UniProtKB/TrEMBL annotation:
<protein>
    <recommendedName>
        <fullName>DNA repair protein RecN</fullName>
    </recommendedName>
</protein>
<keyword id="KW-0547">Nucleotide-binding</keyword>
<keyword id="KW-0227">DNA damage</keyword>
<feature type="domain" description="RecF/RecN/SMC N-terminal">
    <location>
        <begin position="18"/>
        <end position="536"/>
    </location>
</feature>
<comment type="function">
    <text>May be involved in recombinational repair of damaged DNA.</text>
</comment>
<dbReference type="GO" id="GO:0009432">
    <property type="term" value="P:SOS response"/>
</dbReference>
<keyword id="KW-0234">DNA repair</keyword>
<dbReference type="Pfam" id="PF02463">
    <property type="entry name" value="SMC_N"/>
</dbReference>
<dbReference type="GO" id="GO:0043590">
    <property type="term" value="C:bacterial nucleoid"/>
</dbReference>
<keyword id="KW-0067">ATP-binding</keyword>
<comment type="similarity">
    <text>Belongs to the RecN family.</text>
</comment>
<dbReference type="GO" id="GO:0006281">
    <property type="term" value="P:DNA repair"/>
</dbReference>
<dbReference type="InterPro" id="IPR003395">
    <property type="entry name" value="RecF/RecN/SMC_N"/>
</dbReference>
<dbReference type="GO" id="GO:0005524">
    <property type="term" value="F:ATP binding"/>
</dbReference>
<dbReference type="GO" id="GO:0006310">
    <property type="term" value="P:DNA recombination"/>
</dbReference>
<dbReference type="InterPro" id="IPR027417">
    <property type="entry name" value="P-loop_NTPase"/>
</dbReference>
<dbReference type="InterPro" id="IPR004604">
    <property type="entry name" value="DNA_recomb/repair_RecN"/>
</dbReference>
Length: 584
């Protein structure tokens, strides 16, 4: 089966590392070196490549920025490749090139396949490519929430399917409960709002305004207020156009235009241009007659009725009372009335809505209780298998009498608290169910199971974490595992068993281990030595692959602190031989 492999990393100006290249094996790579040589920078570098937090304190003193570049071969069609290509990244001969730059001022940049990408994208790819375990990860494993996540991950679809349904019901229940709480706790405010709306609607209803009525009445009031002046002007204009009946000899516009037309009609046959002008004078005469007729009708129809003017002004005053409160114009007042009517209907229906929401809340609570029970059942079944598998792994890690179990319990809610009924008990519910999951360890027969934070020593905790990861490798494999001193607190036979188990894990995944134990390093397919130069930095030549005699010398140093000790050399050769037989 083709899997992803972290092939190499180049690290520049990071911590004690000046410029170094780390070449990794597809199988088990052990990174060794003296304390303070910079081994942990390998873990830190990979963390940066995979979207980890950028700490400007990591930048080497005197440098402007630290740069980590990595090359990961990835099979075509995997989720990581698809996501990278969606971001515009290109593969380089079947490999993803990743780069992360951290400036001394704290700025961070990421590149993937030749394209600048958000740092968060690297974190998304990390889930499919590498599982990083350092000392802080051990501390994370002590948290019940992380232990529940681990159990859910191990259970797979048996938990994820009901959990998805549970989350949907949980979110709906929270939304219903929030709305119901708002309706009940704000009942007084909503009643006051309803009274104000009702008063406004009654006031508008009493006036019964029409759309555009305020504009129409304003025009009518203007006309009635100037009726005499309008009538006088219309009469004078009519006389100018059509003549005054009381002055038969008077000259008017109609008479003058008619005379001009007659003068042209006498000779129009001799010139088409003059005939056209005669036609236009005829049209003017008709237009003058029409306007004169309309002026006469306007003057006759104009009503200078003071009673009508008073009625108009009274109506305008009533409309003004509305526009002062509910809108700048009557059209806006009517729009307010329509919106307020809808709002009042909503408020008046609150009692019905409260009943509906209460019924929905109860139904959702019952549904959530059923889904929570299904989650608990699935987790309980998975917990038995998970605990048995981890216990079996611990037997292979020199803890033959240790027993791992998983405690799944629910926290009951105090009377009056917020919870759901499960098996006749009111239990607290969260977005992930009602279960609290805790990993327990009994390190030897007769010892009571205790939380691993209290029941495990540092070395035992390291082996428990390794056992958990090995179990995951069988159910939810990750292409690459990186362990930072997973063997902390381990020695002797237990260290040999840790090395053997890591080697077996490397048969199905790439394993990189930063270690100080020769028993672990001896099982590696490749051993890298990190060493400083005289000025305290790690240069390109400071990370090298150890083979043959060089590897024996490094294991001797790790065993006895003396590279040339004959006893240590013999022990180192013995370790390498035993590890080689085991791998074969």
């Amino acid at each position: 089966m083709v899997r992803s492999v972290l092939e190499e990393m180049r690290i520049r100006s990071l911590g004690v590392i000046d410029d170094a290249v780390v070449e990794l094996s597809p199988g088990f790579t052990a990174v060794t070196g003296e304390t303070g040589a910079g081994k942990t920078m390998v873990v830190t570098s990979l963390g940066l490549l995979l979207g980890g937090r950028a700490d400007p304190a990591l930048v080497r003193i005197g440098a402007k920025s630290a740069v980590v570049e990595g090359r990961i071969s990835v099979p075509e069609g995997t989720a990581a490749v698809v996501r990278a290509e969606e971001a515009g990244a290109e593969l380089d001969d079947g490999a993803l090139l990743i780069s992360r730059t951290v400036s001394a001022e704290g700025r961070s940049r990421a590149h993937l396949g030749g394209r600048s990408v958000p740092v968060g994208l690297l974190g998304e790819l990390a889930d499919d490519l590498v599982a990083v375990h350092g000392q802080t990860d051990q501390q994370g494993l002590l948290k019940p929430a992380r232990q529940r996540q681990a159990l859910d991950r191990y259970a797979g679809d048996a938990v994820s399917v009901p959990l998805e349904k549970y989350v949907g019901a949980y979110r709906r229940l929270r939304a219903v409960a929030t709305e119901l709480d708002e309706l009940t706790t704000r009942a007084r405010e909503r009643a006051q709002e309803a009274d104000l709306l009702r008063f406004g609607l009654e006031e508008i209803g009493a006036v019964e305004p029409r759309a555009g009525e305020d504009t129409e009445l304003a025009a009518e009031a203007e006309r009635l207020g100037h009726a005499e002046a309008l009538a006088s002007a219309a009469t004078a204009a009519h006389s100018a156009l059509a003549g005054n009946p009381e002055d038969p000899e008077g000259v008017d516009a109609g008479m003058l235009v008619g005379g001009a037309q007659r003068a042209l009609d006498a000779v129009r046959a001799h010139d088409p241009a003059l005939a056209a002008l005669a036609e236009r004078l005829g049209e003017i005469g008709i237009l003058l007659a029409d306007v004169a007729g309309e002026l006469a009708g306007y003057a006759d129809d104009l009503d200078a009725d003071p009673l009508r003017l008073a009625a108009v002004e009274e109506r305008r005053a009533a409309l003004t009372q509305l526009t002062r409160k509910y809108g700048a114009t009557i059209d806006e007042v009517l729009a307010w009335a329509e919106e307020s009517g809808d709002r009042l209907t909503e408020l008046d229906g609150d009692d019905d809505r409260i009943g509906e929401l209460a019924a929905e809340r109860d139904a959702l609570g019952a549904e959530l209780a059923g889904l929570a029970q299904a989650l608990t059942d699935a987790r309980t079944e998975a917990a038995e298998r998970f605990a048995a598998a981890v216990t079996a792994e611990l037997a292979s890690l020199a803890m033959p009498h240790a027993r791992v179990s998983i405690d799944i319990r629910q926290t009951e809610v105090a009377e009056g608290g917020d919870g759901i009924e499960v098996d006749g008990r009111s239990v607290a519910y969260t977005a992930t169910g009602v279960d609290e999951v805790e990993l327990l360890l009994a390190p030897h027969p007769g010892a009571p199971p205790r939380p691993i934070a209290k029941g495990a020593s540092g070395g035992e905790l390291s082996r428990v974490m390794l056992a958990v990861e090995v179990v995951f490798a069988g159910s939810d494999p990750v292409p690459t595992y990186l362990f930072d001193e997973v063997d902390a607190g381990v020695g002797g036979k237990a260290a040999v068993e840790v090395g053997r188990r890591l080697a077996r894990l490397a048969r199905s995944a790439q394993v990189v281990v930063v270690t100080h134990l020769p028993q672990v390093a001896a099982f590696a397919d490749r051993q890298l030595l990190v060493e400083k130069t005289n000025d305290g930095s790690v240069t390109r030549s400071g990370v090298k692959v150890l083979e043959g005699e060089d590897r024996v010398r490094e294991l001797s140093r790790m065993l006895a602190g003396q590279e040339d000790s004959e006893t240590a050399r013999a022990h180192a050769e013995e370790l390498l031989a035993a590890a080689g037989k085991d791998r074969a």
